[in-house]
Amino acid sequence: MRRGTSQLRQERVLEVAQVLFAEKGYHNTTMDEIAARSGIGKGTLYRTFPAKEELFLSTLDRAMERLERAILEEVEEEPTVLGKLRRAARLYFRFFEQEGELFKILVSNVPTLQEKFNRRVQEKYSFYVDQIASMLREGMDKGEIRGLGRPESITVALIGACNSMIYHWLLSGKPYPLEEDLGLIERAIEGMAR
Question: What domain count does the chain have?
Answer without folding.
Answer: 2
